[in-house]
Design a protein that fits this description.
By secondary structure, this protein is of the alpha/beta class. The chain contains 19 helices and 20 strands. Helix 1 packs parallel to helix 12 and helix 14 packs parallel to helix 17.
Length: about 575
């Protein structure tokens, strides 16, 4: 190791990514492991102050003892158009109350009503499920989790950007290589089991612009299968401010309107209207743009004056500070005519696993949004699933330790990872990652590529991405900060190829994947996962049938009342 001027850490379980999934995976591994089990958690930022969850309200779907578990499972599967691991989703839901009580024992507080009951709200696109949030929002939630980890002896590695996964001669993942994001120091972490819990790939959009989710592509490079690349989390937003309260504003009377003042959602979603889930809203917005009916607005004029102050404050502290700085302007913009757009926040591409969160590569597990449990998470199930699959992954990693030998650090393999990590460094180079990123965003954020898709436009976009990848190959980094950004941009370019390729491959429309040339859902042929795996250097697209052991798959064709009626007929 002296040749690399770096350091070596040996551990039993390595968790990569310090958001909700990673924090829960580390905690679960520590609790399930025997005394002396070594757990290491690494993140490219400061653990407890990073991840999608930390910058959100931390709304979570949580099932209380009297809630209808199987009814909520059915509506989540239906809301995913069947693209869901039913066994995993059910276990996450079933364990959510236990995790909620864990959070309370850590000192988290959850708002209550005047009668002492917990304050829970419905969420968009679902009828039976209820969400709640911790006081202080996501930042407080993640910080309390970090504080809960610290006294347990879990090793926390802040600002360690993982550049590659290590494998032994048999193909088993045996840890990772990382660089310190400030000093550039090289660090090897040898582990018996590795859990990837990074965010899903983003193109630096939405409110998590610096969370790019490279872990899924590291897993792919190590031989893992990816899936759900054709689906995205596309949500309405405005560049003027970030607003987490759209769901609740609509519940209080807000409506989507076009430049003519027409409330357009009932035309596209006759049963759900403005309460439809975000993929459907995004599609409607794209079609309205195609028709020339832009700009589009969230008309909040129907919200009573007595409730308006609630919307210009946020449970997310950084967001609340932002609103306070805007002052009266925030209220004017929010309740006036501010244009909204369908923003591509992240891909839903994740690592393929079983319900136990084990991938198809020995020694490698996945959790958080890096795990492909669902293709649509609804408000509150993003974090709810991360909490649940993190717990499952940590438990599975401990179960694997008895049959996973201590890793051997292969000097040649480490040398290759070191060279791969540092090769683009050149003090005389010009920082150009932002230029490549802007061109990449222009391709992937186009409404007629990222939302309304057709074979012709997808092929043209893929050719442009290939050209950008060729330009990128000649770029170097003048310093460590730019080196990290280059690694992230490299992952985004590869992800873009997978997204466009999978979108071409799935010749139907489902969830956030809308093909104008194949505009119908086709369960007979496409109730499948589209999988991507590296075979001899070429990423083929293949399909895996989706098991339906717990409930059948049906489209949500009615509003809340009809969905409630169906659940009642189906029974518990």
């Amino acid at each position: 190791m002296t040749a690399f001027a770096g350091s070596l850490t040996e551990t039993d379980v390595l968790v990569i990514g310090g958001g909700a999934g990673g924090l829960l995976a580390a905690l679960s591994a520590k609790r399930h492991g025997p005394p002396g089990t070594r757990i290491t958690l690494a993140d490219s930022w400061m653990i407890g102050r990073t991840g999608h969850t930390a910058f959100s309200n931390a709304w979570m779907i949580t099932l209380f003892p009297d809630d209808d578990l199987d009814g909520i499972l059915r509506e989540i599967v239906a809301g995913n158009d069947g693209i869901a691991d039913q066994v995993l989703v059910r276990e996450v839901l079933a364990s959510s109350y236990d995790r909620f009580r864990d959070f309370e024992r850590m000192g988290m507080r959850f708002p209550r009503n005047d009668d002492g009951s917990y304050s829970r709200r419905p969420t968009r696109g679902l009828d039976l499920a209820r969400v709640l949030y911790p006081e202080g929002g996501g930042l407080e939630f993640c910080w309390q989790l970090r504080k809960a980890l610290e006294p347990t002896g879990i090793q926390l590695l802040d600002r360690h950007f993982v550049t590659g996964l290590m494998r032994d001669a048999d193909g088993r993942v045996t840890g990772a290589a990382a660089i310190h994001t400030r000093t550039g120091a090289f660090h090897v972490i040898a582990a018996r089991a590795t859990i990837v819990c990074t965010n899903a790939i983003t193109f630096r959009s939405g409110f998590v612009r610096d969370i790019t989710g490279t872990g899924t592509l590291l897993a792919y490079a190590a031989g893992a299968t990816l899936r759900n690349a054709e689906f995205s989390y596309v949500r309405p937003g405005t560049p003027k401010f970030y607003f987490e309260g759209i769901t609740f504003a609509i519940q209080e009377g807000a409506k989507w309107v076009n430049a003519r003042g027409e409330a357009f959602m009932p035309r596209y979603e006759p049963d759900w209207g403005d309460e439809a889930d975000v993929p459907r809203i995004a599609r409607a917005m794209a079609v309205e743009k195609q028709k020339g009916n832009v700009p589009l607005y969230l008309d909040m004029s129907a919200i009573p004056e007595s409730l308006r102050d609630d919307f210009i404050h946020s449970k997310v502290r950084w967001m609340d500070n932002f609103f306070r700085k805007l002052g009266a302007e925030a209220k004017t913009d929010m309740f006036g005519k501010t244009p909204y757009y369908a923003l591509n926040q992240m891909t839903k591409m994740g690592i393929a696993t079983g319900p136990d969160c084990r991938s198809d590569v020995p020694g490698l597990l996945a959790a958080g949004l890096a795990q492909a449990g669902c293709a649509n998470h609804f408000a509150g199930f993003h974090i709810g699933l991360c909490v649940g699959n993190g717990w499952i992954a940590g438990r599975s990693a401990i179960e694997d330790l008895d049959r996973l030998p201590a890793p051997k650090v292969d000097a040649a393999g480490v040398q290759a990872l070191h060279a791969q990590a540092t090769q683009p460094l050149d003090a005389g180079a010009e920082a150009q990652s932002d230029r490549i990123l802007r061109d990449l965003q222009q391709v992937m954020f186009a409404y007629d590529v990222g939302i309304l898709k057709s074979a012709e436009r997808l092929e043209a976009a893929r050719a442009r991405i290939d050209a950008l990848a060729d330009e990128f190959a000649d770029i170097a980094a003048p310093h460590v900060h730019e080196l990290v950004r280059l690694k992230e941009t490299e992952a985004m370019l590869l992800a873009a190829k997978f997204i466009l390729g999978a979108s071409l491959y799935r010749t139907e429309s489902r969830l956030s994947h809308f093909r104008e040339d194949f505009d119908a859902r086709d369960d007979a042929n496409w109730l499948v996962w589209v999988d991507i795996a590296d075979r001899n250097g070429t990423p083929p697209f293949t399909t895996t049938p989706i098991p339906t052991p717990l409930c059948g798959v049906e489209a949500i064709r009615g509003g809340p009342a009809r969905l409630r009626e169906r659940n009642a007929i189906a029974g518990p």
